[in-house]
């Protein structure tokens, strides 16, 4: 599928149009050349003359194939489990620009700039590339075709036109010079040749090429119908389900390999050409721009190693396949650079490879649109000039395909690359050359009437099959319902399928690269499905996809065979994981009957699936996941996207969507009506019934819209001069928290502790550590916080205790009842004698073995953190109850919830199996050396979270008051995090599974699209009824300003606080504090100390834990003492609260202004949308009907950016007003800016508001009163 030369030609011709308007004398030559008179040469070939395959090609293998389970949960397959475990290592997201939007070029002439804006050529390029056309493409097409015809009529030579196309392509920087040269040379000759010989105009040409998006214009030269023999159609019979346990054929379907022999690992994957990941694309310009080893989600084709690995996997995993369907597109997407010789080489090498990998297995190929050079160029047989004839390809296809096919196919393969083969008695495969329906095949403009007489031959074959009682499977490349298929050809094909619905039992195509299907219907009764076309997934990841293939199980040889597909499986390779771990894993993504709950795979069953997906978004979302082959970079699918995809599935006939899709689209439109429609209908319907009870949007619970603030107690405020922060210090600063808009604060541990890990090693879960104060201090803090309307959240540390806790002391002494409070083990026998060895290879978080020998107990105990932090045994019910009692104790003290620490490590593998090496580091002492598949994210862990939630909710029910919340810490994969919210059976879990992706997935080099991906990824896993949360910093990671850039601190805080749901700010981020240098001598963090002097700086968390900077006095106002537990930052005199409160503009004031915005209805109840505007500008759009729209814009780049905001929200006015502006902004609050020309300085950010007009204010006040 390649249309990349189309946008180039059209954009060039628009510049020519500008010249025609400004310099008409250039085009008024009187030397007009006459149009070449051209007539279609006679072709006396007849279908009856072609020999037929009458001997079965496939011998009965008597294979006993096992069908996929009908009701199995595919996600539990071993391969899927292995992938899920692979996710548990620290993710290294493959760089992707999801929403690329090139910057406007300022080097163009003003008139051309306006012209390009008018035609929206970026949209044209996208539509032509993806074959999703609109009026934009139609307008550009007509302009281009008209100007080319004008040039031809005015006598310009072929060479002049080609040179002009090349020059403008280069000057306009539409593509690189080599792409411009290749496109103009390869395609220019063919296009000019055809346009010289046709008499139709731009309207007819573009209706022909683009289809229904350009009108169904009558074109007498391209209206034709096939002829059917005078044989009555057999009465359709209702298809029964295939017989259970009957023999089946197992069939492999490969499509769109697009093998790239020049793929180069590490080359530039973000190039500006149609195909990247080659040495000729140069070195990557960014760290994330390098091509992956096994392929890339960007515009890159399939490396040889990936093809080899896939074929080896198939040969091993599916050694029992009976035959293979191979539906074309072998060469790569370098369409500007291809030669006949190069494409033939790819063909020969690939055929040889398939023959060697699958010896003795019949392969049934079909021709793709990429096999020709130039791409899409398939002249009919009557074009016999040496330089234009397609015989060079068809003759070689016959030679190569004859390795698997009988001699009888040569006649039709050499004529038109189509054939018919009897596979088994009563079962035939017909392979069609779908390039004769390809509307990008310019040769068809000469005469599209059944090129090569293929469809007439097809009818003859089907009629013969009907007479012989044979069932037929049709294979091809371009699906007949796809927009790339010529509408007149598709209409005729549809008639043929309808006529022979009893004979054709399945169709198989490729081309789209997606995993999908098309249903065919009775043209006279659209409620009756008659046939099904299976569209197989591509091997190539081009683009945004995982590589994939299909396995079909086809009703086999038995007396009642239907030759229907009984079931099919789609298999994929997770490309991201393959590149990350350098080990591709091919696994079954789904099997159809089980995934969709289908009785069978008859046409009626597929039609029912479409209806079910129309009614159920959940089912559609599952299909959408499979459609994209579980790609981690798939875009979101809104209701327009949903309509398009379901309409595609209903449209076996191209360019006729209105006929097939009206009902589906109407149902989706109806289900998507928002409360705005309800509001206006309610207002009108209640005019005669003012006392009606109206259902209105409800307010959020306190935590769902709250700004949370993390306090690290040792560093927040010291009240007694000892250099360590304490509870009374926190209490003294509660008014500050209130003033900046905080609703709740959570404190890192304040329990009694030896302070080996600064409070996370707890010796008494029910007491306060003396450095922080007393229980009375704590109770007073809670009381004062509640008086100010602040919520208090405790840090609950359930995984381990201190080794000085009485439980551990008693357990080590084996006191009755405490023997199994911790995880003890004898260890493994030491073959050298002496003390036993540790039970396994597990590594703790702070380097070294996770097992420590106890001389007293003569056993090892598990500690996933420091030696002084032994893991509690959650397989002991007594321990579980002990920790529940701890929660109840603090709830009784008035706390409003818990932040639960290190949740993934609660449970360990009972067999204590060794963990596999991750490949992330060569240091065997480092925790990242292993993949923690036996010590993290075990299924029991989330069940424990559900139990804690039930405990919290029960306390709530008994004692009343506002919601108590659970917030969980887990750096797990999204599929695991999703389960923390709730179980599949409805058990509730964490209110807020912390969303750390703004910490783990972005860095200083991240683009706006990377931030968009973070938002979309989290929203995609959010269960219905739940709200998102966003965490940008904490006490374990470098500070935001250090990690992402000091100059961006306002932009980052504005983005954080603009997103919907709850936000979490780590102390000091609101004033832009940075990490502080800590020498080895001053280092106290156990993670750093255990790493040693050479590695400490890499592991240390001390730099982000330094004392809070309150003012410019000694010790930054943190303490009255002369020494602090960690050094105060050197820049505290400039970066402190007092200075920023006094300044006219400051980070703190920006933060406070954003907090005020979060109190508005739009921010609390409105929708959220994140959009990348080019590489640098991120937009966060908040909308709520009748309450105004807010747009946060942040420029993360080093250049001035000019963007248009018109498309960011519905019905935006021409002017937007500044609500909040960053410190470095030249704008002022209350000022305005034109919506269509918004200028952002480097690292500037601001929030714009669309003012509400007088009429909307009336509705706003009405709604406001309802919502109060």
Automatic annotation (TrEMBL):
- Name any GO cellular component annotation: lysosome
GO molecular function term, any single one: alpha-1,4-glucosidase activity
GO biological process terms on file: carbohydrate metabolic process; ceramide biosynthetic process; sphingomyelin catabolic process
Q: E.C. number, please?
A: 3.2.1.20
- The broad enzyme category this protein falls into is hydrolase
Q: Which N-terminal stretch is annotated as signal sequence?
A: 1-22
- Which residues does the UniProt record annotate as the domain Saposin B-type? 134-218
List the catalysed reactions: a sphingomyelin + H2O = phosphocholine + an N-acylsphing-4-enine + H(+); Hydrolysis of terminal, non-reducing (1->4)-linked alpha-D-glucose residues with release of alpha-D-glucose
The record's keywords, sorted A to Z, are: Disulfide bond, Glycoprotein, Glycosidase, Hydrolase, Metal-binding, Secreted, Signal, Zinc
Q: Which domain of life is it from?
A: Eukaryota
* Function according to Swiss-Prot or TrEMBL: Converts sphingomyelin to ceramide.
Q: What name is this protein filed under?
A: alpha-glucosidase
């Amino acid at each position: 599928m390649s249309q990349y030369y189309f946008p180039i030609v059209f954009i060039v011709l628009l510049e020519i149009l500008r010249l025609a308007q400004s310099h008409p004398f250039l085009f008024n030559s009187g030397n007009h050349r006459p149009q070449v008179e051209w007539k279609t040469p006679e072709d006396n070939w007849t279908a009856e003359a072609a020999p037929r395959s009458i001997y079965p090609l496939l011998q009965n293998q008597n294979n006993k194939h096992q069908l996929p389970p009908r009701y199995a949960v595919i996600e539990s397959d071993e391969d899927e489990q292995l992938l899920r475990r692979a996710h548990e290592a620290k993710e290294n997201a493959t760089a992707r620009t999801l929403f690329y939007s090139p910057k406007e070029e300022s080097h163009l002439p003003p008139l051309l700039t306006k012209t390009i804006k008018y035609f929206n050529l970026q949209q044209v390029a996208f539509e032509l590339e993806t074959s999703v056309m609109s009026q934009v493409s139609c307008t550009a097409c007509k302009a281009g075709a008209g100007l080319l015809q004008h040039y031809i009529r005015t006598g310009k030579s072929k060479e002049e036109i080609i040179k002009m196309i090349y020059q403008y392509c280069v000057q306009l920087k539409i593509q690189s010079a080599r792409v411009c040269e290749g496109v103009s040379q390869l395609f220019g000759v063919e296009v000019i040749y055809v346009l010289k010989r046709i008499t139709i105009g731009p309207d007819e040409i573009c209706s022909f090429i683009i289809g229904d998006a350009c009108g169904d214009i009558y074109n007498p030269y391209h209206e034709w119908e096939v002829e059917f023999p005078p044989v009555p159609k057999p009465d359709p019979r209702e298809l029964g389900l295939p017989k259970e346990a009957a023999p089946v054929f197992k069939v492999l379907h490969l499509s769109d390999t697009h093998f790239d022999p020049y793929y180069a690992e590490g080359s530039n994957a973000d190039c500006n050409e149609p195909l990247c990941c080659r040495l000729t694309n140069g070195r990557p310009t960014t760290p994330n721009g390098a091509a992956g080893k096994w392929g890339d989600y960007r515009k890159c084709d399939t490396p040889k190693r990936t093809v080899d690995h896939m074929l080896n996997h198939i040969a091993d995993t599916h050694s029992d396949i009976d035959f293979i369907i191979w539906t074309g597109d072998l060469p790569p997407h370098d369409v500007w650079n291809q030669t006949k010789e190069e494409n033939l080489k790819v063909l020969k090498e690939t055929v040889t490879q398939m023959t060697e990998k699958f010896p003795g297995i019949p392969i049934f190929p079909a021709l793709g649109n990429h096999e020709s050079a130039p791409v899409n160029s398939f002249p009919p047989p009557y074009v016999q000039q040496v330089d234009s004839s397609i015989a060079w390809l068809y003759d070689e296809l016959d030679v190569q395909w004859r390795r698997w096919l009988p001699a009888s196919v040569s006649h039709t393969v050499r004529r038109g690359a189509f054939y018919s083969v009897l596979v088994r008695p009563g079962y035939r495969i017909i392979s069609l050359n779908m390039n004769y329906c390809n509307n990008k095949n310019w040769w068809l403009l000469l005469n599209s009437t059944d090129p090569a007489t293929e469809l007439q031959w097809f009818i003859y074959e089907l009629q013969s099959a009907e007479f012989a009682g044979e069932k037929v499977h049709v294979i091809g490349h371009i699906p007949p319902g796809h927009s790339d298929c010529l509408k007149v050809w598709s209409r005729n094909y549809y008639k043929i399928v309808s006529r022979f619905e009893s004979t054709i039992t399945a169709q198989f195509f490729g081309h789209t690269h997606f995993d999908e299907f098309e249903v065919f219907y009775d043209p006279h009764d659209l409620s009756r499905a008659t046939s099904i076309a299976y569209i197989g997934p591509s091997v190539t990841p081009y683009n945004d996809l995982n590589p994939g293939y299909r396995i079909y199980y086809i009703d086999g040889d038995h007396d009642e065979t239907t030759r229907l597909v009984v079931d099919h499986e789609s298999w994929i390779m997770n490309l991201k994981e393959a590149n990350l771990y350098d080990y591709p894993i091919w696994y079954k993504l789904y099997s159809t009957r089980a995934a969709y709950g289908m009785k069978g795979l008859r046409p009626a069953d597929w039609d029912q699936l479409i209806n079910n997906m129309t009614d159920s978004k959940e089912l559609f979302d599952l299909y959408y996941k499979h459609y994209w082959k579980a790609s981690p970079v798939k875009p979101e699918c809104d209701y327009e996207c949903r309509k398009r995809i379901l309409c595609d599935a209903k449209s076996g006939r191209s360019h006729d969507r209105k006929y097939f899709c009206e009902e589906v689209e109407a149902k989706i439109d109806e289900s998507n009506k928002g409360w705005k429609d309800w509001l206006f209908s309610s207002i009108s319907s209640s005019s005669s019934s003012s006392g009606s009870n109206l259902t209105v949007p409800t307010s959020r619970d306190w935590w769902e819209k709250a700004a949370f603030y993390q306090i690290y107690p040792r560093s927040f405020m010291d009240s007694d001069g000892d250099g360590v922060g304490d509870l009374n210090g926190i209490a003294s600063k509660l008014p500050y928290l209130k003033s900046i808009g905080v609703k709740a604060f959570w404190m890192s541990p304040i329990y009694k502790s030896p302070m080996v890990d600064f409070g996370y090693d707890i010796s008494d879960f029910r007491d306060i550590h003396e450095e922080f104060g007393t229980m009375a201090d704590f109770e007073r803090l809670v009381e004062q916080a509640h008086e100010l309307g602040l919520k208090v959240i405790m840090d609950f540390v359930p995984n381990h205790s201190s080794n000085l806790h009485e439980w551990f002391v008693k357990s080590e002494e084996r006191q009755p009842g405490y023997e199994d409070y911790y995880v003890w083990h004898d260890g493994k026998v030491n073959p050298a004698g002496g003390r036993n060895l540790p039970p396994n290879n597990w590594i703790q978080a702070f380097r070294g073995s996770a097992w420590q020998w106890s001389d007293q107990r003569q056993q090892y105990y598990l500690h996933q953190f420091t030696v002084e932090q032994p893991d509690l045994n959650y397989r002991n019910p007594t321990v579980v109850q002990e920790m529940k009692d701890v929660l109840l104790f603090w709830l009784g003290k008035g706390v409003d919830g818990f932040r639960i620490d290190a949740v993934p490590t609660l449970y360990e593998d009972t067999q204590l199996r060794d963990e596999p090496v991750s490949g992330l580091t060569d240091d065997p002492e480092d925790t990242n050396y292993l993949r923690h598949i036996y010590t993290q994210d075990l299924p029991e862990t989330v069940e424990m979270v559900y139990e804690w939630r039930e405990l919290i909710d029960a306390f709530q029910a008994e004692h009343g008051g506002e919601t108590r919340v659970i917030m969980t810490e887990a750096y797990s994969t999204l599929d695991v995090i999703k389960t923390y919210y709730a179980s599949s059976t409805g058990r509730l879990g964490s209110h807020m599974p912390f969303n750390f992706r703004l910490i783990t997935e972005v860095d200083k080099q991240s683009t706006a699209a990377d931030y968009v991906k973070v938002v979309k990824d989290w929203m995609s896993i959010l269960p219905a009824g739940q709200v998102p949360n966003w965490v940008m910093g904490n006490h374990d990671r470098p500070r935001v300003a250090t990690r992402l850039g000091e100059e961006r601190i306002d932009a980052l805080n504005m983005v954080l606080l603009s997103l919907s749901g709850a936000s979490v700010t780590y102390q000091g981020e609101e004033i832009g504090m940075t990490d502080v240098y800590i020498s080895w001598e001053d280092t106290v963090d156990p993670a750093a100390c255990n790493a040693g002097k050479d590695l400490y700086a890499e592991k240390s968390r001390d730099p982000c834990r330094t004392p809070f900077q309150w003012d410019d006095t000694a010790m930054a106002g943190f303490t009255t003492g002369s020494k602090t537990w960690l050094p105060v930052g050197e820049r505290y005199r400039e970066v402190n609260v007092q200075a920023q409160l006094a300044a006219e503009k400051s980070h703190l004031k920006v933060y406070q202004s954003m907090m005020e915005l979060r109190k508005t209805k739009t921010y609390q109840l409105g929708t959220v949308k994140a959009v990348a505007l080019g590489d640098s500008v991120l937009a966060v759009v908040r909308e709520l009907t009748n309450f105004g729209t807010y747009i946060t814009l942040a420029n993360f780049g080093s250049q001035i950016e000019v963007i248009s905001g018109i498309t960011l929200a519905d019905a935006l006015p021409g002017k937007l007003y500044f609500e909040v502006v960053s410190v470095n902004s030249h704008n002022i609050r209350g000022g305005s800016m034109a919506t269509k020309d918004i200028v952002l300085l480097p690292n500037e950010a601001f929030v714009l508001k669309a003012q509400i007009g007088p009429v909307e204010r009336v509705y706003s006040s009405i709604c406001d009163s309802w919502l109060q």
